[in-house]
Amino acid sequence: MSKIRLLIDEDAMDHRFVASLRARGLDVTTVGELSRTGLSDEEQLAISTEQQRVFYTFNVGDFCQLHSVYMTENRNHSGIIISTQDYSVGEQMRRVLKLMTTKSAKDMENQLVFFKRLF
Where is the DUF5615 domain (predicted)? Predict the structure, then answer.
């Protein structure tokens, strides 16, 4: 089972969150580390797909719509996780870790996962 690799959106790239995930051995990068901040949501999702990374964001409206467009147009993406800013860094990390124990990178393809509804 291939492990999920993450690309963290600029709205969610809290250094404590990223460091906590890395400390647990997860493959995580951010749009900031890739020097890709300020790009459109579609460009960000394309980058995550090219790199075979699941996209992690707080941007509910835009990424729900983008996911719908992809599905309507029979386009593929590596997966999208939408969380809420209301969760602490620790809670976000726990939810990512739990997801990673139940889903593979293949399972996440073309999936839109809401943390507020997942657990």
Answer: 5-115
